[in-house]
Amino acid sequence: MHHEPVMLNEVITLIKSHSSHAKILDGTLGLGGYSEAFLQNFPESFVLGIDRDTQAINFSRERLQDYSSRFQALHKNFGSLDEIPDINNFDVYVFDLGVSNMQLSLPERGFSFQNDGKLDMRMNPDDENLLTAAEVLKTCDEKTLTKIFRDYGEERFANLIASAIKRAKYPIETTSDLVKLIRETLPQPVQRKMGSHPARRVFQALRIYVNNETGELENLLETLPKVAHKEALIIFVSYHSLEDRLVKLSFREWQKNNKGKILTRHPITPSDEEIRRNYKSRSGKLRAFCLIMD
Length: 294
Ligand SMILES: C[S@@+](CC[C@H](N)C(=O)[O-])C[C@H]1O[C@@H](n2cnc3c(N)ncnc32)[C@H](O)[C@@H]1O
Fold this sequence. Notes:
Blueprint: H1 8-16, E1 23-26, H2 33-41, E2 46-51, H3 54-63, E3 71-75, E4 92-96, H4 101-105, H5 133-139, H6 142-153, H7 158-167, H8 175-185, H9 188-193, H10 200-210, H11 213-227, E5 233-238, H12 241-256, E6 260-262, H13 272-277, E7 285-291
Parallel strand pairs: 1-2, 1-4, 2-3, 4-5
Antiparallel strand pairs: 5-7, 6-7
């Protein structure tokens, strides 16, 4: 299992340039790629990694066991920051949003249009508030599904696909059922011209909706400047224009309210070399903010 960390050098350089990095919060631990690099680059530091996915927590705990005196992993949602012990005591807060390769590559998690599995997509299957993607398709009406596909997937054929789902002659319970339906619905010439898989946008939209990803990010951006250390460095890496916009607008608002300074007037993006090496990094945008003392 491997997840190539995105813009890792850029993240490390920013942290190196900050006044202190004794305590680092990795708010999206995933497979522990960032956390491992923090532990290696900052030998005096303590790193707390949180993730809403227990599989990510278990995997990274094992991967980073050699650092157990300086590393801890906790099953938490960054949308509920105040549940994290000592949350106001970190020098650096890092959030690498979205989905990990582990989630994408395990067919039974139902995130991937390339693997057959139950259409689930919950990052935290123990969270009773989350419906699976199959349940969302079953319970939402055509108008709601259209909005989900349009807002979170920027899918041009949102309405056509939503209408086909509601009229489908077979139950849509697996990732393959949904891929089949999308392939049957989109006009062939459109599919031929598409640069990527025809189901990519719908899968992304469903994942964001199932996990209330924008809602959790909004909660985080609301709470973070209130609870974070007054001289903390805050770093976000996002992969969707909607998320990047939320981060950008919050940073502007914080700066306007004298909470600190935007360090990235324009977002940092992956180098051509990184995109060649790791094509999945191509949509990444990094923004950083430094809080100031009252
Ligand atoms: C892109 S991956 C992080 C990869 C990590 N930086 C690495 O190098 O391995 C994003 C991770 O964030 C987690 N995540 C997404 N939303 C979350 C939330 N609201 N709270 C906590 N973790 C979340 C996902 O479960 C996933 O494991």
